[in-house]
Amino acid sequence: MDESRGQPTVSELLGRVAVRLRQTMEIGTETDFGGLTPHQARIVGYIEANEDRGIIQRDVAEITGTRPASVSSLLQGLERDGWLERRTDPSDSRRKTLHVTDKARALVKGFEQRTWGAIESRIDCFTDEERRTLIALLSRLDRHLAASS
After folding, report:
1. Structural domain count, the chain
2. Which among 41, 72, 78, 144 is placed 20 to 30 Å from 1, CA to CA?
3. Most distant CA atoms of the chain, gap in Å
4. CATH number at residue 143
5. CA–CA distance, 128 with 57 (Å, rounded to integer)
6. Is 104 exposed, middle or buried (0-12, 13-18, 19+ CB in 10 A)?
7. ∠ CA 111-108-15, rounded to 5°
8. Nearest 5°: phi and psi at 72?
9. Is 1 part of any domain?
10. 2 SS3 class
11. Where is the HTH marR-type domain (predicted)?
């Protein structure tokens, strides 16, 4: 908190909002992950959102902070159960990229619809003009963070 003004800082507010939105998402989606654990569902969602970038096993290990051996086992299970597939990278035959199946894509889309719907119902306190301003500011922050990572 900014002691001089007695008001929270932008980073504090972003942190609070992030926590509250995560709580809203958990309530809005209940726990229907199509038989997947929440961890598996997040990995499937990450692969679905980034598969056009040529995601490989090492990328999943890095974003989850998980040991490569654990990721290998997890991905083998997801592949065996029909959630994802590995394909040979056309530019490097030694490299296997990860891709979701239609079954996984449908799960992700349904999850996103429930999640975004739950959030939309919680942010109805803004006018149309305020929403446009918020979208512009958050989009700018998102681009900045993406360029920094």
Report:
1. 1
2. 144
3. 59
4. 1.10.10.10
5. 42
6. buried
7. 60
8. -60, -45
9. no
10. strand
11. 7-143
Answer yes or no: is 2 within a domain: no
Render each residue's pLDDT in the chain as its tens digit; 149 residues.
555 668 999 999 999 998 888 777 665 455 567 888 878 888 999 999 999 999 999 999 999 898 988 999 999 999 999 999 999 999 999 999 999 999 999 988 888 888 788 888 888 899 999 999 999 999 999 899 888 86
Distance of CA 104 to the CA centre of its chain: 14
Q: Which two tokens stand for residue 105?
A: 């894509």
Please give the Cα distance from 113 to 116 (Å, whole number). Answer: 5
Q: Are 115 and 25 in contact (CB under 8 A)?
A: yes
- CB neighbours of 121 closer than 8 A, spacing ≥ 6? 28
* Cut 0.90: pTM above it: no
| Residue range(s) defining the domain that contains residue 82 | 10-148
| DSSP states of 28-82 | HHTT--TT--HHHHHHHHHHHHHGGG---HHHHHHHHT--HHHHHHHHHHHHHTT
Residue 118: other Cβ atoms inside 10 A: 18
- Give yes or no for a contact between 69 and 28, defined as CB atoms under 8 angstroms apart: no
